[in-house]
Amino acid sequence: MDHYLGIDVGGTKVAFRVETGTGPVDETAFGGGPRHSAAADLAQLAGHVAGLRTRLGSPLRAVGVAMPGTVGPDGRVTAWPSRPEWTGLALDVSLRELFPGSVVAWADDGDLGALAEARAAGCDNLLYVGVGTGIGGGLVLHGEPCPGTARGSFELGHVVVELDGPPCVCGRGGCLQALASGPATLDRAARLRGTAVTFDDLRQAWEDGRPWAVAAVRRTTRAVAAAVTGVQELVHPDRVVIGGGFAAGLPGFAGCVSEHLAEFARPGQRPLPAAPAALGGLSSLRGAVSLARLVATR
Length: 298
What we know:
Blueprint: E1 4-9, E2 13-20, E3 23-31, H1 38-56, E4 62-67, E5 70-71, E6 77-79, H2 91-98, E7 103-108, H3 109-121, E8 126-131, E9 135-141, E10 144-146, H4 176-180, H5 182-193, H6 199-208, H7 211-235, E11 239-243, H8 245-248, H9 253-264, E12 274-276, H10 283-296
Parallel strand pairs: 1-4, 4-7, 8-11, 11-12
Antiparallel strand pairs: 1-2, 2-3, 5-6, 8-9, 9-10
Helix pairs in contact: 3-10, 5-7, 6-7, 7-9
């Protein structure tokens, strides 16, 4: 039986999903501890891969990897602000060493999230926004990822939405990620509250309607809506879905984005409907499995 593995390498955790021709057979996640080097991260990954192979008892036909970092044409990581220790890593070589005998491919996590959500929604023109440790974005037009793997990734998180805005880890200021990522939202909430805020604190206060939590989250959703509006003006997707673990954990997050999209709509322009991602925080992981299936047929 053929097994297809998807891996979502996030800023704070790594998730695995294995599928066969009939559906999922294994799904695990690990991470959250300190990181010291790319070598240490890869060693930890190798340990989990070994455990996965033991559980499956059969080889993997293909592996798809969702990568938030920027990978150059030579297969090396050129930039990854959330995991700077990976910069310069020969990703191509490292992954093939981890999975000898398997077909291996990788793509941007936002692009893969968009692909998975477009297929789940049956929508050929879809914009995906993933709000988590960073901001991932992906666009599917006419059923295909845009701009396409040969032309780079759809970096919605690094669209400037506020001139003279806060510094971003990429080196610019005012990027969507600097205003609307999970960490940025928690930092804003802490400033408004006057004390440290955990995600659980924010979620409970948001549900309770506490002013500091509402102000922090609505600032985030308004920034997301501003970036989405810019995409709408240029390429006119049919819908936008909001995913990522941070957004998925806050009830009504996508609805709040929709309110701001209506606010930003020009006269005569139909507001773009926003909805929670059908796959929640698993969009990129499911997209990675789809990528594994795709490359296995080539």
